[in-house]
Amino acid sequence: xxxxxxxxxxxxxxxxxxxxxxxxxxxxxxxxxxxxxxxxxxxxxxxxxxxxxxxxxxxxxxxxxxxxxxxxxxxxxxxxxxxxxxxxxxxxxxxxxxxxxxxxxxxxxxxxxxxxxxxxxxxxxxxxxxxxxxxxxxxxxxxxxxxxxxxxxxxxxxxxxxxxxxxxxxxxxxx
Length: 175
What we know:
The chain has five helices and seven strands. The protein is α/β, with parallel strands linked by helices and 175 residues long. It is globular, with a radius of gyration of 20 Å. 30% of the residues are buried.
């Protein structure tokens, strides 16, 4: 009798786990880096190989570090919104060009526009690995002291900006 219930119980448990999984937001990937210092890095700026960008460029202002690539279709969707965000004086918008060809990335930005104050060129995923980047676009909010306060995986749009990102930025700017 009990043996005949084992498949039914197993099916119930699997169904329950599946139902719980369907309630989760797939873009909400927890990051162990929240409230940790932004990793140390020393990479060239996209437009100028001789110019070096470091974690110090993220200090003294709230920064939004946006991971993008010219190969990224979703980045094209997000890009017009980043152009609008760049008009906000309360944020330091930093690009992180990831796994890309320098010339293609520059051409892409010439075509779509460049919203960034600086662009980190991470063609070998040096910084991306430290940040746990799994794809593009991804964005990180960094506070005045260089701590990661928020991570967003996926496209930033008006809904995400108003609901999730702007409240974090406004909260940090009040400190």
